[in-house]
Write a structure and sequence with these properties.
The protein contains ten helices and six strands; from the N terminus they run H-E-H-E-H-E-E-H-H-H-H-H-E-E-H-H. It is of the alpha+beta class. The strands form two sheets. Strands 2-1-3-4 form a four-stranded mixed sheet, with helices on both faces. A two-stranded antiparallel ribbon has the order 5-6. The chain is elongated and about 90 Å long. The two termini are about 45 Å apart.
Length: about 350
Amino acid sequence: MKKLLSYTFFLFFFLLLFPRLSFAQEEIILFWGENCPYCHTVRDKISAEKLSEKINIVEIEVQKEKENISLFKEKVSQCNINPERAGIPLLFVDKKCYKGVNSIMEKLKGMIEESEEEIEAIEEINLLKGKANTEKMIVIVFIFLVLTLLFGYYRQDSKKGEKKRRGGKKIAMVFFLLSPLIFTSKAYAICPLCTVAVGAGVGVSRSLGIDDVIVGLWIGGLLVSSSMWLFEWLKGKKVVKKESKKWLALGVAILMYALVLVPLKFTGIIGHPFNTMMGIDKVVFGIVLGSIVFFSAGKLHFYLKRLNREKVYIPYQKVILPVGALWLTTIILYLIVYY
């Protein structure tokens, strides 16, 4: 149980460290006075045109608030203006000063236009980067699925000694444990260590520009995988009574989802009003879709196994079906998002 808790805390530590896009912003200070009519004109114009909603303008009063005079003189001096001759309203931007209503408003509007153009350029770059990295992710998962299948058939057909077969099992175990570190944000975890590695990889996928709905898709698979593992672990410890299995499974699932969704909400990763698909937050939409896809593919595995007298049709069927289902869904989302 201690190991499980350690893995869980480790996972959410990385979830809280999702890379988040940040931009360096120039220092914008508007010095004004309560008894200055032109100051009120500037402030009214800024409010009417909602400029403060687009750029961060710090307004500092210097007539009644005497303690702000020293800051005013300091900033004016940086503009090579004699503080004794400086007047208000005055706009300070990156060691440059702008005086008068028209000059101040022209500068602020120009900054907003430049900011909007910069944001559009950054969004275009991120879109292209995300598209390219999503394509790489799709190819890598496909290679993983093919190699897993080939390795399974190789093991089935192998006629080597028991010692070598044991060695093959060790190689397979190492391969599955390390695979999440290679394939960023692929939630095909089969064990707690895998799920931790995938959780760390999800953060990286954001920095790669991969769309949140695709990231959420794999988080959903991760949560179903983790919930199933924990439930099976508890069953193995014989702490689950037959009549309470359904309730325990439900409780485990609620716990897993809450431990992920609540931190994502508090850190602002979930809840942005413009980061939506079909009116639903992209991360949440992806998680719900990924959970349904992963769980349904798992059910399909057990259904096919029953049809085949408790034997699998293909090697590692339990892994390939859920991961393959997420892979196919990723392709569909890729076409929707980028085309």
